[in-house]
Amino acid sequence: MKPSIQKLRNYFKLEAKNGYDNSAVIGGLERMLDPWSMEARADSLPEAIIQAVTTRLRDYHRLSVESRKETLFGLWKRIQRELGEGEPPEEEIKPQEEPAQEEQPTPKETVEPTPSGVAAETPGPAATPRPRPQFPPGAGADLNAHVTTLKHIGPAYAQTLENLGIHTLGDMLYHFPHRYDDYSQMKPINRLGYGEKVSVIGTVKSVSARDTRGGGTKLVEAIINDGSASIRVTWFNQPWITKQLQPGMQVVISGQTDQYLGRLTMNNPDWSPVEKKNLISEGIVPVYPLTARITQKWLRNKIYAVITDWAPRVLDPVPASLRAEAGLMDLSPALEQIHFPTSWEQLKSARHRLSFDEIFLLQLGVLQQKVNWSQQTASIFRMEAGWLERQLQKLPFALTSAQQRALDEVMTDLASGHPMNRLIQGDVGSGKTIIAALAIALVCDQGSQAALMAPTSILAEQHYHTLLQILATNGGPLSPEQIRLMIGATSESEKIEIRAGLASGDISLVIGTHALIEDPVEFHDLQLAIIDEQHRFGVRQRAALRAKGTNPHLMVMTATPIPRSLALTVYGDLDLSVIDEMPPGRQTVDTYVLYPKERERAYTLIRRQVEAGHQAFIIYPLVEESDESEEKAAVEEHAHLQKEIFPDLKLGLLHGRLTPSEKEAVMTRFRDGEFHALVSTSVVEVGLDIPNATVMLIEGAHRFGLAQLHQFRGRVGRGKARAFCLLIPGKADAIESERLQAMAETNDGFVLAERDLDQRGPGDFLGARQAGYAKLRLASLTDVELIQKARHHAQRLFQDDPDLTHDEHQQLAAALKRFWSSGSGDIS
Fold first, then answer.
1. Terminal Cα-to-Cα distance of the chain (whole angstroms)
2. Better-predicted residue by pLDDT, 61 or 777
3. What stretch of H or E contains 719?
4. CB atoms within 10 A of CB 173
């Protein structure tokens, strides 16, 4: 029996079983007509049969029960007569007498109208909203059931699906498409432009594979032609594609166009075979993330089966009143539309609803964490009259108004009786360290201890010397012996001495790296924990430092300006102090974007600055050259610069493949002036203080985000001399890049952070903290409007029912627990 006839038979039998109430298909039988007719034509059914089915069923919803029965009976009789398919029609579609049941009857079965190219496999529940059924033992599965409960999924396929994070039916329900193909809207190849994100449908003309230079990479190249033009498509290290792509095959490729030797190309695009049923469809086809041994058609079928059967049964955790007020689509149709949308408008509504859920649950969790933290008790540190004035008088500079505001907030926290949980964010050179120093002074002056943890030894050492100068000279509150540095290079005998001093209380302040959180380290009375460049540390590391005391006050600092949308979400459990004003006299860095052919001008500037006694950074996006990119690389360019360009200068080399001790050694030698210039990849440490460095040259600048470029720029201009930042994109056509020009227009890191978030997403801002949060599948942390909407509703609900104990919030409480089960925030 042909698939389209089998499908029609299933529809008719279910309709008969359900008493001809038009519930066999969600939305009514007429909803399945368009996709079914396309599948029928693909099966080469006679056009007369197709027209008869579509004509008779188009008005099925208007017929009486008796007329519906006669219509289905007549259609099936004709199909049997003309095609010889099926059993006698009476046995096929007549209503069945239901046996008496002792158990509660299960809901009527239904079948979702099949999307183009997807065969229906599993009947599902009726279209009308209803509570999720309570299955009797052994009668069915739930969303926690393993995927092997699905038809045709055995242990081998289940193991493969685990690579996609799919273990249960619920995982499959929330395995969303990463794009959609609308074959009616695709652009011909001859109308493509450079840098466009597009989908193209065409025929494979050729496919080949070869090893790249050095043999480290396998290159697969294919030529795709759509009748208007051809485009060369390249995949790196995916040799299996040569077995999957065959000349003559029709495929859809999706990605961003690039250019090579004047011709358009596409590198590492998504691709999938074109199914004939989709080709003649005007529908929207979901395209899912895949793994080896899984095809789009197979996964689409399985997900469709789950959606059909389970999406209508899912309980909506968001209360109906909140959904109405926020203008949200119900959860069940949202899940159906996100997978198999009937229109782009419905898809947009579904995406909005599901994205709202993620941000809403994130906000609720953050609010709970903030309240839990504020309910803890902590030691109180109040300033005596005149204490702060005496400390400020010892400083060689006056605080800016932004620093004073941040200091007031910190001192209020320390005197509150609740543990401080504050993030100090300020641009490079804005003066965050002095705020930390004054907090340390207050705590240690009253007999308690403080610890400052930095991500690298060289940064820890910088903090050590700075704090020693502020706190232990000119009548400071501490003596040099009370301030110690503990890093990887610290000898074991000295570490033993420091541990003993911390345990006895003789040492008031310790500065170090992760060595501070190792088990042997115990404090006599740790009351203030400070973490610098906090995005470099994970939740466990922060928790481990806090655990060294009893509810100590926590201050975290970052030089990466955090956009408002992230401050409201990912960092929403922290109180935020923003130092958005630079100290008087701080140098702005002159920034220029150069064409690649102007590179010699950059070299001339470096030489002049070195002759004047200064130093330079030269940054490259790659460690070593690769056929995957035309960008310059640090290792090769270091050799070239040392031999051909600056043979009389001494150049250091720093990259991520060096061991930590090797990196430390290179940076220390550069700091001490042994190298005139440092050639490096992006591993140049945030916070690295080289006052003598006046030039930052960044090659392949278009490869970096604005936040990262701004951090690079912050490595220079830290002394009194004029400083320069030179940006050279890898291609001349990137010289007008709005991103790069923004760097030349402003030195304001907050402005650049907002632009970078819009253009590149939140990855550069999250760092290790991202691991503390459940993964957001759909929501964008750049969508300020959605974030504010979700935050508004979360705050209102939280004020009314902070513990989610009301009856209407029980499903929401369960959803919140599931959402946060894969991670936690800063309240560990």
1. 59
2. 777
3. none
4. 20
Minimum mean pLDDT range among 767-776, 781-790, 815-824: 767-776
Q: Residue 569 and residue 584: Cα distance in Å, rounded?
A: 33
Question: Are the C-beta atoms of residues 399 and 464 closer than 8 Å to each other?
Answer: no
Q: How far apart are CA 525 and CA 521, in angstroms?
A: 12
Q: Which residues contact 653 (CB under 8 A, 6 or more apart)?
A: 634, 635, 638, 666, 678, 679, 680
Calculate mean pLDDT across residues 795-824. Answer: 85
Structure tokens belonging to residue 511: 């500065």
Residue given tokens 């209360």 in the structure block:
319
Q: Which has the minimum average pLDDT: 245-254, 515-524, 583-592, 774-783?
A: 774-783
Q: Whole-model pTM? A: 0.64
- Cβ contact 113:32 at 8 Å: yes
Give the model's confidence band at 331: pLDDT under 50 very low, under 70 low, under 90 confident, else very high: very high
pLDDT at 125 over 80: no
The pLDDT value given to residue 735: 55
User: Of 581, 575, 584, whose CA–CA distance to 411 is shortest?
Assistant: 575
Average pLDDT estimate for 761-775: 54
Degrees to nearest 5, angle at CA 58 with 53 and 59? 125
How does residue 628 score in pLDDT terms, banded at 50, 70 and 90? very low
The partner residues of 615 in beta bridges, in order of sequence, read 693
Phi, psi of 633 (to 5 degrees): -130, 150
What pLDDT is attached to residue 514?
85
Question: CA 119, CA 86: separation in Å to the nearest integer?
Answer: 19
- Angle, helices 457-471/432-445, rounded to nearest 10 degrees: 60
Q: Please, what is the average pLDDT of the chain? A: 82
In this structure, are strands 677-680 and 615-619 parallel, antiparallel, or unpaired? parallel
What would the DSSP string read from start to end of 87-149?
Answer: S-HHHHHSPPPPPP-SSPPPPPEEBPPPPTT----S-EE-SS--PPP-PPTTS---TTSBGGG
The residues, ordered by sequence, that sit 6+ positions from 211 with a Cβ below 8 Å of its Cβ are 217, 218, 219
**C-beta of residue 182 within 8 angstroms of C-beta of residue 285:** yes
Question: 222 or 690: which carries more pLDDT confidence?
Answer: 222
Q: Are 311 and 368 in contact (CB under 8 A)?
A: no
- Name residue, tokens 């579904």: 350
In whole angstroms, give the CA distance from residue 209 to residue 219: 5
744, amino acid identity: A
Per-residue burial over 576-589, b = 16 or more CB atoms within 10 Å of its CB, e = otherwise:
bbbbbbbbeebbeb
**What value, to the nearest 5°, has the Cα angle with vertex 741 and ends 739 and 743?**
80
DSSP string, 757-791: HHHH-SHHHHGGGGGGSPPPSS--TT-HHHHHHHH
